[in-house]
Amino acid sequence: MTRDLMNSSGGVSRRSFLESLGGMGGSALLMAGMSALGFGIASANASPPALGEGGKGKKVIVLGAGVAGMASAYELSKAGYEVMVIEARDFAGGRCQTARKGFKLTELGGEAQECDFDDGLYINHGPWRIPYHHHSTLHYTKLFNVPLEVFVNDNDASYVAFAKGKGPLAGKAIRKGQIAADTRGSAAEILAKQVRQGALDQQMTAEDREKFLAYLTHEGYLNADLAYRGTDGRGFDVDPGAGLDPGPGKMSTPNALTDVMQSNAWRVLTSVAGYEQQRTMFQPVGGMDQIAKGFERQIGKLIRYSTVVKKYRQNDKGVEVTVAGPGGKTETLKADYCICTIPLSVLRQMDIGVSAKFKEAIGGVSYALVGKIGLQMKTRFWEEKHGIYGGHVYTDNPEINTITLPSTGFQSQKGVLQGYYNFGASAAKVSALSVKDRQEFAAQGGKVAFPEYADNVETSFSAAWHRIEHNLGGWAEWNEESRRDAYPILCEPDGRLYLAGEHLSYLTGWQAGGIESAWQQIAKLHKRAQAA
After folding, report:
1. Which helix (H) or strand (E) holds 138?
2. Phi, psi (5° rounding) for residue 446?
3. Which end of the chain is more exposed for a tag (fewer CB within 10 A), N or C?
């Protein structure tokens, strides 16, 4: 999941910091920064642990049918374990959800929603993108025959619409590619002229200076005088075509560097894509919940839906989980081990019999406040009138943040775009609105980029993850102290209880984090079970 350029406290987020490192120093500096902050270089595991068939005669209860819980159940059942999955909802997937016609959601303290998008339209209001290096997620999409398509995560044709900047570009929707060309072109011109005047004579050999000048000329589209005068890549005021009119067309006029700087539009630029945010990513065809459905086709018979965990107890011989089923009837289930994938934000409020230090560690992490809205538009005006096919429209309104255009259904009549993706205090503020008012807020917020935006809104579906009962937040947000003190405790079992989920990874907020956490924990459980 993408976060805003700033975190909720007003400081620069780690993701933004890493993107800045990449923009300044390329991949080497980016990787060094990632290492310093404790990030892995890629999704660490490409395949699940080889458990063999040594699980026969042993029972495991899995709490939660999200991707971590279902990955645990799938791999353990293949190894011969008797597995039962307990799921509070009436469907599987956890946060891996897709809202389409008929999907229902009632937030805590909120009104009931039932998605009424047209047939075939949807919004992924939970996870929505898969990076190429999330090998664990891609392992299951391939294994379960879940077809993928490209998710356009960056588009030079999309707009930057910053209303709070200064100068002649403030409040205008400008193509991201134009901002990139003008910023880099002007910066390359300044640096190239400094090099030509001898500014780097002490740092470079004559040969290196000439090569560096050649690079700057190429990177900044400079002419023989080392001046930036624009480039055809930033677009045309009159597009080239046939005959003499329009003939060669008329190239667009660059913006002055000072105008770009004052507008703050340059803040969306990075010369190297962030680790979690490549230019193009993947999404399952038909919605992210196709991954959950792929798991369900394999292990759906193991899942007890609409069943809520009431109490957990354990001793040296096994575990006991008291649950309430669809009719409210309670029963106590017994097994040898338990894997719990319930988010810590929910787990810390439950009656669980674990050690004092384990319980304290469960309470040691906060969860992100996150909100999304899908807006069904009666026309795809962003394609028809603006020539934008996928990607994000960037705003400097934190309550809107980004508007994301669909990467599927190109040139069809209608489409669902993501009208806001907000975090922290901004998410809390917007989530307090009624469903109708959220729609109106998002409709008006999009007019900063598209004048026809509000008039095209037909219906919407919104979700505030911090107000969804069985999640209470979008993802775990560890700080340096909690990573040091609580995280290591929770990565190890407490008695016969093993925790798994995105919260026990350095890929928080991503399905790969949940899957790989599950793989680690089932490997530990299996090793222990074999030694017993």
Report:
1. helix 135-143
2. -80, -10
3. C
149: alpha, beta or left, given left = phi > 0 and alpha = psi -120 to 50? beta
Are the beta carbons of 183 and 259 closer than 8 angstroms? no
Question: 29-88, pLDDT tens digit by residue?
Answer: 444 444 444 444 345 578 999 998 889 999 999 999 999 999 999 999 999 999 999 999
pLDDT tens-digit map of 495-507: 999 999 999 999 9
**What is the C-alpha to C-alpha distance for residues 159 and 381, in angstroms, rounded to an integer?**
14
Is residue 165 within 8 A of residue 264, CB to CB? The reply is yes
Q: Is the pLDDT of residue 9 over 70?
A: no
Q: How far apart are CA 490 and CA 339, in angstroms?
A: 12
Q: Is the dihedral of CA 398, 16, 277, 432 positive or negative?
A: negative
Rounded CA-CA distance 317/446 in Å is 59
- Rounded to 5°, angle at Cα 312 from 308 and 318: 125
Scanning the structure block, which residue is given the tokens 């029972």? 59
Tell me, letter by letter, the H, E, C secondary structure of 321-346. Answer: EEEECCCCCEEEEEECEEEECCCHHH
Q: Can you give the pTM of this predicted structure?
A: 0.89
Structure-token pair, residue 161: 């619409």
Q: How confident is the prediction for the chain on average, in pLDDT?
A: 92
Give the model's confidence band at 272: pLDDT under 50 very low, under 70 low, under 90 confident, else very high.
confident
pLDDT at 54: 85
Neighbours of 125 (CB within 10 A): 27
Q: Is 167 left (phi over 0), alpha (psi -120 to 50) or beta?
A: left
What are the CA-CA distances from residue 119 to residues 326, 378, 505 (Å)? 29, 13, 37
* The pLDDT of residue 3 is above 80: no
Closest CA to 180 of 266, 263, 257, 262: 266
CA-wise closest residue to 128 among 509, 517, 529:
509
24 pairs with which residues across the strands?
none
Contact 453, 446 (CB under 8 A): yes
Q: Which is it for the CA torsion 425, 427, 428, 430, positive or negative?
A: positive
Cα dihedral sign for 340, 345, 346, 350?
positive
Question: For 140-165, how does the pLDDT look when each residue is reduced to its tens digit (9 = 90+)?
Answer: 999 999 999 999 999 999 999 999 99
